[in-house]
Amino acid sequence: MHIHILGICGTFMGGIAAIARQAGHRVTGCDANVYPPMSTQLEAQGIDLIEGFSSDQLLQFQTMPDLFVIGNVVSRGNPLMEAILNQGLPYTSGPQWLGEQVLFGRHVLAVAGTHGKTTTSAMLAWILEFNGYKPGYLIGGVPLNFTVSARLGEGQYFVIEADEYDTAFFDKRSKFVHYRPRTALLNNLEFDHADIFADLLAIETQFHHLVRTVPSDGLLVVNGEEPALERVIERGAWTPVERFGQAEKNEWSLISEAGDGFAVMRGGKALATVTWAADSGVMGRHNQLNALAAIASANHIGITPADAARALAEFKNVKRRLETIGIENQVTVYDDFAHHPTAITTTVDGLRRRVGQARILAVLEPRSNTMKLGVMKAQLPASLNAADKIFAYGADAGKESLGWDLNAVLSPLNISELNRARAYDNIDALAQAIAQEARPGDHVLVMSNGGFGGIHQKILTAIKKIALDKDQKPESGLIR
Q1: d(CA 232, CA 206)
Q2: Are residues 395 and 338 in the same domain?
Q3: What CATH number does residue 40 fall under?
Q4: 117 among annotated binding-site residues
Q5: In what order do the strands lie in the sheet with 443-447?
Q6: CA 20 to CA 238: how far, in whole Å?
Q7: Does 119 carry a binding-site annotation?
Q8: Contact yes or no for 8/29 (Cβ under 8 A)
Q9: 64 and 196 part of one domain
Q10: Is position 2 annotated in a ligand binding site?
Q11: 115 labelled ligand-binding
Q12: Of 64, 194, 468, 471, which has the fewest CB atoms closer than 10 Å, so is most exposed?
């Protein structure tokens, strides 16, 4: 079958393309922005790409594709989509194609939640891989234990990051209702995606729809310390529920060990101990809970907590999750995907646990749709409070760029210390200011869900130049 994918360069649709190719289909695709690394990854798999969404591309096919798979980046008015509709050509959404053609008949382990989906999915997929299950998986990031973010797999098990974002312009249900999981992990739940959800209740309804699809002989692994998830379960659950969390009241709990390791507890009994690899970059209580949830989910298919813990001892994390980018003049620069206040809090706190009293310079670009709308702006100061200095970028650090004043929102952080938090409207000026502030032993934590204009290398370059200008001998160790 020839499948043509609209919006192919997104992480999710690119994953679908890779899986379809592995399943033996001819795959082509198009997107508005076709550039590395996604374009080179897809082309290396024999997938031909077309730049843009012009309807003229239909004329390029000697034989019309059998099916058009539509990503949720595509909306009405898109020239190619309008041509597909006008000509009555067959189309479906990415999640529906995946559910019907790949997941049907398999044991799906779905990881849902506002935060930690990518990391927890990567942990769970690695636990299965380490224990010989050869799972299929689709993860919204690049898990460092694997070479690709998605694969068809060989066994009956498939791990999927189950996103609550909408499916397509013609299907406004959350993506995860198409996956029909037998093991559903509900990691956490709070308000996000303000561009498509009116309030938290609307998201809870989608999670309730997911719960309704899990069979009675399946399992719901639920964070027992999330009120929103309790409300979801109270609306109806026809499947056994196992709760996890820090408190012993949960069936699965944990006791922190030295560093970021922890003991896995079930019913008050210690079953295993997780010790992260020294170079894994995995840190923070949130990752302990992510791992605990993955262990509980793997237990459902017969992988013991002890075997899961052995796998996690070799877990290498996911790209853009507190990933060390480089070191110049003893200043370490990290990259992290955090873009929601709760994720920012846990990321900063996780780094604080690792570096102790060393200074943290937090660098934030609030560019997600929710942040641009200003829905979470009041929570930003508290989320950044554990950092020593805060630098933010708003494209135009005033009201016109975000619809709200970034400097004004950050002003509570300046009450005790003048200029502790500053906003900039120019990336080069921002990088220079960070480099001027940084001193040996500091940790620069860059947080954005986009490329952030290559600021990581700009910071490293500026730090090196300043050190050289001061006639210092910089200690450098570029990671990539």
Answers
A1: 9
A2: yes
A3: 3.40.50.720
A4: yes
A5: 323-328, 331-336, 443-447, 360-364, 389-393, 421-424
A6: 33
A7: yes
A8: yes
A9: no
A10: no
A11: yes
A12: 471
Q: What is the 3-state secondary structure (H, E, C) of 38-53?
A: HHHHHHHCCCEEEECC
Q: Is 116 annotated as a binding residue?
A: yes
The last residue of one of the domains, among 277, 312, 347, is 312
Look at residues 401, 413, 302, 316 and name the one whose alpha carbon lies nearest to residue 362: 413
Residue 477: its pLDDT value, please? 52
Tell me the CATH number at 335.
3.90.190.20
Is 370 flagged in the annotation as binding?
no
Domain that holds residue 222: 105-312
The model carries a pTM of 0.78
Establish if 475 belongs to a structural domain. Answer: no
Q: Are residues 267 and 360 in the same domain?
A: no
Which band of pLDDT confidence, cut at 50, 70 and 90, is reported for residue 372? low
Band of pLDDT at residue 69, cut at 50, 70 and 90: very high
Q: What is the mean pLDDT of residues 278-287?
A: 78
Residue 114 labelled as part of a binding site: yes
Q: Is residue 100 part of a domain?
A: no
What is the SS3 assignment for the chain?
CEEEEECCCCHHHHHHHHHHHHCCCEEEEEECCCCCCHHHHHHHCCCEEEECCCHHHHHHCCCCCCEEEECCCCCCCCHHHHHHHHCCCCEEEHHHHHHHHHHCCCEEEEEECCCCHHHHHHHHHHHHHHCCCCCEEECCCCECCCCCCEECCCCCEEEEECCCCEEECCEEEEHHHHCCCCEEEECCCCCCCCCCCCCHHHHHHHHHHHHHCCCCCCEEEEECCCHHHHHHHHCCCCCCEEEECCCCCCCEEEEECCCCCEEEEECCEEEEEECCCCCCCCCCHHHHHHHHHHHHHHHCCCCCHHHHHHHHCCCCCECCCCEEEEEECCEEEEEECCCCHHHHHHHHHHHHHHHCCCCEEEEECCCCHHHHCCCCHHHHHHHCCCCCEEEEECCCCCHHHHCCCHHHHHHHHHCCCCCCEEEECCHHHHHHHHHHHCCCCCEEEEECCCCHHHHHHHHHHHHHHHHHHCCCCCCCCCCC
Query: Is residue 350 scored above 90 in pLDDT?
Result: no
In single-letter form, the type of residue at position 397 comes to: A
Number of domains in the chain: 3
- Residue 25's nearest CA partner among 99, 102, 93 is 102
